[in-house]
Amino acid sequence: MRFALLNDKRIEATKGAKGVCPCCGSELVAKCGEIKVHHWSHKKKCDDWTAEVYVIQDRNGNVKAVDVKNANVGKSFMDSIERAVNKASPLPDDAVFDSEIYMLFSVN
Question: What DSSP string runs through 26-53?
Fold first, then answer.
């Protein structure tokens, strides 16, 4: 990820910098090598991120509403799920059409 938080301010990765994840609040490590763009990585694997996602779509698969609930991480994670579902509209495969869809997002 490009930004971490330090004292509630967004910072970019620099060698030796410390920060926390804006989504889950976990400690981040600055990755500042010579090949890839400097970025942040979680110090520990975060494998318990979950959120329930409810989607309403029309017959053509166009997303009409997205509701993300019961996420155990921050609002940024919930917002990114909502953006991803909306960006995927119209949803594919009318062979399994249902006007209301329930999904459980899990990161591991």
Answer: -EEEEE--SSSPPEEEESS----EEEEE
pTM: 0.56
Site of tokens 């490009």: 2
Does pLDDT of 37 surpass 80? Answer: yes
Please report the pLDDT score of residue 45 as a whole number.
64
Q: Is the domain of 53 the same as that of 38?
A: no
| Whether residues 57 and 98 fall in one domain | yes
CB 4 within 8 A of CB 22: yes
Asked whether residue 63 falls in the same domain as residue 89, the answer is yes
Q: Tokens 């409810």, residue? A: 54
Domain limits for position 93 = 49-107
Q: Could you identify the residue written with the tokens 């694997």?
A: 45
Structural domain total, the chain:
2
Neighbours of 27 (CB within 10 A): 12
